[in-house]
Amino acid sequence: MAHEHQHQHTHDHQHEHTDIDWAEMAPLLQAQAELYTPLHEHALAWLGKKQTEPGLIVDAGSGPGVVSCLLADAFPGARVVAVDGSEPLLEMARARAERLGVADRFGTLTGELPDTMGDLEYPADLIWASQSLHHLGDQRAAIAAYAERLVSGGTLALVEGGLPTRFLPRDIGIGRPGLQARIDAMQEEWFTEMRAALPGSVAVVEDWPALLTAAGLKPSGTRSFLLDLPAPTPDRARTVAAATLSRIRERFGDTFDATDRATLDRLLDPDDKASVHHRTDLFVLAARTVHTAVRSG
Length: 297
Fold this sequence. Notes:
There is one protein chain. This protein is of the alpha/beta class. Helices cover about 35% and strands about 20% of the residues. The chain has nine helices and seven strands, in the order H-H-E-H-E-H-E-E-H-E-H-H-E-H-H-E. It has a seven-stranded mixed sheet with strand order 3-2-1-4-5-7-6, sandwiched between helices.
């Protein structure tokens, strides 16, 4: 699920196999973001040393608001605005903020990115855009729009890139070894098609510091953060692994050969001891990369 975890933005268009129903994905988005909390906490601690005491933080492409609330916790003096194109996801974000006691300094804004950023009442001290930018056709224009909504000295933090998530060893004892590597290749093809099908899609070299510089920002750091949950994993990791593989089985079912299809079916069968529901070798290993840049003028 290298390119889908937390991709929290909606589009009005429909594509044969590249459109994503974010409201339908809400439970997985929330469960996965919760699982990734240690990674996000480390990233936000690093970010806090770069942007001290921000007044307004915007989570651009917030989805169900898991990280939005972590931002509120990491920066207790800030107001946080979660921005997303999906109202059902923002309802979840508001409920979460209420439950965690940060609703008094938490708001939401519904609309298509990046245009809806113009509806913010004030420029932001910190804009966090995690795995959402690549769902916008013109990424360069979106970065420029974000840059315009920053105060002087404000920071834009893009979470893009990293490494594909791993749940299983190369040889799992059933089927043909290397299943997750083959899934990665399919995901890359799907991702390329998804990008090409977006409205106003513009191909760019994914040199994020260069793109940030082109928007008039000054890159201030790039760092990758690791999520390392070794086997045996907690049940919530099994839940995320099962939901992730189930979505992959559904999306790429006809693309897999018969052996891999049969292996996936066994991995997803709760009654099979070889499934992700019971395996003792299931783990979670992931890396996410954060690129930061500052508006200087």
